[in-house]
Amino acid sequence: MPRYIFITGGVVSSLGKGLASAALGALLQARGYSVRLRKLDPYLNVDPGTMSPYQHGECYVTDDGAETDLDLGHYERFTGVPASQSDNITTGRVYQRIIERERRGDYLGATVQVIPHVTDIIKQFVLSDAGDADFVLCEIGGTVGDIEGLPFFEAIRQLGQELGHERAVFVHVTLLPFIKVAGEMKTKPTQHSVKELRSIGIQPDILLCRCEMPIPPGDKRKIGQFCNVRESAVIEGMDAASLYDVPLAYHKEGLDSEVLRCFGIGDAPEPDLTKWLKISQTIAEPDGEVTIGIVGKYVGLLDAYKSLIEALAHGGIANGVKVKLRWLDSEQFEKDDPFAPLEDVHAVLVPGGFGGRGAEGKVAAARFARERKIPFFGICYGMQMAVLEAARDLAGIEQATSSEINEGGEPVIGLLTEWSRGNEVETRSEADDKGGTMRLGAYPAVLAEGSRVREIYGTSHIEERHRHRYEVNIAYKPQLEAAGLIFSGMSPDGILPEIVEIKDHPWFIGVQFHPELKSRPFEPHPLFASFVAAALEQSRMV
């Protein structure tokens, strides 16, 4: 039977609960245990797919087509365990299920209430589909005391009581601020956070205290005494030089040992951290560096590109180099003579996005990379903009546009209305609801013989994760091919373009899917490894 670890947060948000969950999961794996990680989100959206990246960061997509919180990306990257629809739930989805049941008459005339009906749905979600996992780690979004989070805290309180201490452990992440003027670390915010947690019936077993400097022994004793936890269960969580140093740091502080002690497990094997040590060393001692210009729409909030940032870092690990990122707002490339920021980069990447704002800037960036023979990587919307550039400047289709941006002109990029998923055909129209209606999840593609991508992947068939509503219009394929664009990846039925390349260019690839979602530090995605290698080659030519 699985054991459950509930990770909560207090004082302030953005303390790194998701990263702590992922790191703890990786440490338990290193000891030979199997894990499953889940996220409970208190917001009312049914899924994050319709939320602006500025509101909630990146929308992460799973193989089975779930639009989820970005923390699930951390979980997958650190543990390699594929997430699914059943690993992320929101208040909106909970209420949706309850209302559906109430409308069907499932509650037989009962008054539908937060307790027991909402809390029961949450508990069912936590306990369901655990498979053969030894440990299930459940992160509760937000901070203790938030009104919207109360049903989730109540649900895990009940689970703690029902499962018993041998199957449920609570880890609370708090802040220990250092007041520079006073020259003191302050424990009071942590004490108040634990007091708030205890007031709703949850006694934390372990405190993970985020701090800027080591916790003095006296403060550890004080926290343990006033928060009613063992001193050894007060875990220091300082910032690490790299994300991938975090498991090593938390193990050194005894986080995994303390979790096992709380469960009464005294015979656990020592963790094998060889691969983490190797990754840490590779990052700390790179053999050179490359600069990649990222021309995007959401560069004001880098969490919008979290998986992309990590995938590029993985590409750097694969090549033993440091990848420096230069973030550039695509709108600046719509001005006169805008290309100075790209003059000294070793490669250009145009990521995904939606809507017309900054679109022409992305087209301009693709033109710059093509004409200057600089390695170029277009992802999803970035591929579409690269195709528009090729249509206008190579194929002579002057009015080439996307129907997402402009209803007039030549719709080289159009609304995706029909596609296959296995033996089923899915259809969409402009009138459909926006939430959860895109082409979502993993789909196969066939790679053309002799193409660069087939060489990179080393196979003829791939499966990658998608999240898009528009697609390159297959009707323009003959014109674009005649102009030098290569459709090197297609859906198995030959209808949907998945990958394009340009002839006679060092490295120019656009993909309709999101390869960054499947990249791992121990298994860098082949496209990112190859792209960084091309940037490295470019750096040697400059």
* Uncertain ranges: none
How many independent structural domains? 2
Question: What's the gyration radius in Å?
Answer: 25 Å
Please provide the count of β strands. Answer: 25
Instruction: Give the strand order of the largest sheet, numbering strands 1, 2, ... along the chain.
Output: 13-12-14-15-25-24-23-20-21
In the CATH hierarchy, what is the superfamily of the largest domain? P-loop containing nucleotide triphosphate hydrolases
Overall pLDDT? 90
Shape label: globular
Number of discrete helical segments: 17
Q: Please tell me the CATH architecture of the largest domain by its name.
A: 3-Layer(aba) Sandwich
> Which oligomerization state do the chains in this entry correspond to?
single chain
**Helical coverage, percent range:** 25-40%
- Beta-strand share of residues: 15-25%
Tell me about the largest β-sheet: 9 strands, mixed
Give the N-to-C terminal Cα separation.
59 Å
Structural class: alpha/beta
Give the C-level CATH assignment of the largest domain. Answer: Alpha Beta
CATH topology of the largest domain: Rossmann fold
Task: Give a brief rundown of this model.
By secondary structure, the chain is of the alpha/beta class. It has 17 helices and 25 strands.
